[in-house]
Amino acid sequence: MSVKLVKTHDPTKNAKFLAELDFNAKTTEQYLNQLQKELNSHAKSKQAHNARDILYESDSVYERLNSTIKRINNLILNASGDSNAEVVDMRLDARGKLYDTVGERANEEQLKWEETLPITLDKDDKYTVSVEHFFSEVEPLEYWITTITPKDSEALKSLVRKGIAHADEGFNTLSKQTIDEMTDYYRGAIAINASGWNSTTDLKMRGVHIKDGEILQNESHPTQYTLGIDKNGIMNVYEGTMTAQQLLAKGVVNTWFFSIPIVLDGAEVNDSIRSRVSSYNDLNPRQVIGQRYNSNEILILTVDGRSSRSAGATLTRCAQILINKNCRVAYNLDGGGSTQTVIDGEVINTPSDGKLRPVPDILYIEGNRNYQSYLPVQQAVEDAKGGSRTLKDRIARLDRQSKELTNDLRIELKTSDILWSGVMFMNGSQTAKPTKKLSDCNNGWLLIWSDYNAGTGAGNYDYVISPIPKKLAELHSGGHTLFSVPRNITDTSDITIVKLLSVYNDRLVGDDRNSLSVAPNRRDVVLRYIISF
Q1: Are 514 and 522 in contact (CB under 8 A)?
Q2: CB distance 503 to 479 below 8 Å
Q3: Does residue 249 sit in the same domain as residue 381?
Q4: Of 50, 79, 379, 441, which is most buried, counting CB atoms within 10 Å of its CB?
């Protein structure tokens, strides 16, 4: 069989074929030209030529690789016989920066308030309060330890008290109220959330509840414990099977109920107790209260959590912190979004809910907030930054001035209700919250202003009183209100400083213009008291 190829000539088909070849050639030429252009552009560009130019998140690949190499070079593998264990050089941080000492790294990575904390406040000659603040960016973890030291055994007896929600309406197992409202009602200098409730069922409080020797609720819980304070101010924990009558027989006068002890006899509790809390080793916001050996000081551990700033702590970590503080006993109170600590009317931590969660009761420390008040920690720190004195010196000075003013005003004002006291320019970040709403006063509020000197602080002279009628909040809630404060400069020279406030029914909100230092210097005047009239 043979095949014969016959060449034919078809002008139409040949023309079409040539056109396609021409189109393909031109397309290929355009593609090659574009590719060459991009190659030329890349050759001139400074981007992505090497690992230094390629970004991974906020760092270059080179930086990430370099830090990883450094960390690998500082690893000692299998040092403990555990193939998963690693011993690292603690001078090296997460980004590969090598410090000369571990202490140098800690000083840079950990927020330290040095001069500002701990601070110690005297309260009514009955006890002192010390607040320590800790923050670690590495973990991350933020917590506060509040230590209340009674002056003597008599002060200890009435130191720790129980407050209930909506106390003016009597005890109700369903009642809940925000901690600041309860603190204001009881005039507590320090207050924390305490007991829990059935959050998924009937919303009722759980456990045995006794207040000032009176039985409020008698409900046993065999798997949990009751926290009790006896008539001598001694803290102990009791099995949840014990009745209110049995606790009263042991001298217990106040109780709270939520969980388990985490420290007993100066050591962390055993597995049989730990196993009663499923989240024992989870990272969570925590509220724990303890009492020390011998001195019977009360310690409150408040841990923030569920945020990028602070992940929270396990109960083992909380126990270790308090054991290191020589605690004899420590009890786990309601934590999570309920975790809230108030000192002199200010919430010092950041609740994970983003707002104050209503709770059924509080554990509070009585204090005479009518006549003495101290700058909130955060405000005091900002104040300290502006002067050469340490925060302790400033607080001590303000304390002395407050006591002097108290002695001066107590006779005149003993029939009045002092709703708020402090030292504020009332700038945009400052809010004064009286303990009684404007609408609840007979006539309204009286604002008491005084002189302020940057070198010596608030002065006990040149007082000016500004009235706010109760009707104002109803007619003009939140509106800007001007307050004229006359100042005597010399025998022949007077000026008037104007303060701008937003008046609400439950608070006064400042304005940044109130702290302007241009003439007339509005920082020459501070708000000292709010009084009901």
Answers
A1: yes
A2: yes
A3: no
A4: 441
CA atoms within 13 A on the CB side of 507: 11
Give the residue carrying structure tokens 């925000």: 178
Q: What is the pLDDT of residues 34-69, one digit of tens each?
A: 777 777 776 666 555 566 666 655 566 676 676 666
What is the rounded CA–CA span in Å between residue 340 and residue 334?
10
DSSP alpha helices (H): ranges in 45-178?
61-73, 102-109, 153-157
500 and 441 inside one domain: yes
DSSP string, 451-518: EEETTTEE-S---EEEEEETHHHHHHTT-EEEEEEEEEEETTEEEEEEEEEEE-SS-EE--GGGG--S
- Tokens matching residue 71: 């960390």
Integer Cα distance of 482 and 501 in angstroms:
7
Q: Which residues of 374-396 are buried (b: 16+ CB within 10 A; e: fewer)?
A: bbbbebbbebbeeeebebbebbb
Both tokens of 291, joined, read 């009492």
Name which of 328, 532, 313, 523 is nearest 440 in CA terms: 532
Quick one: 523 and 440 in the same domain? yes
Residue 39 lies in a domain: no
Are 447 and 321 contained in the same domain?
no
**Which DSSP symbol is given to 231?**
T
Evaluate whether residue 494 is within a structural domain.
yes
DSSP-derived 3-state class of residue 357: coil
> What is the helix (H) or strand (E) element at residue 35, kind and residue range?
helix 11-44
Rounded CA-CA distance 484/498 in Å is 5
Distance between CA 477 and CA 480 in Å, rounded?
9
Full domain range(s) for residue 354: 116-366
Does residue 142 belong to any structural domain of this protein? yes
Q: What is the dihedral of CA 12, 18, 21, 23, to 10 degrees?
A: -80
Query: Total structural domains in the chain?
Result: 3
Number of neighbouring beta carbons within 10 Å of residue 205: 26
In a domain, 53, yes or no: no
Note whether 311 and 163 are same-domain residues.
yes
pTM summary value: 0.53
Write down the residue that tokens 């101290």 correspond to. 374
Mean pLDDT (whole number) for 278-290: 97
Question: Which letter, b or e, does each residue of 456-493 get, where b requires 16 or more Cβ atoms within 10 Å of its Cβ?
Answer: ebbbbeebbebebebebbeeeeeeeeebebebeeeeee
d(CA 193, CA 162): 10
Q: pLDDT of 303-320, one tens digit each?
A: 999 999 999 999 999 999
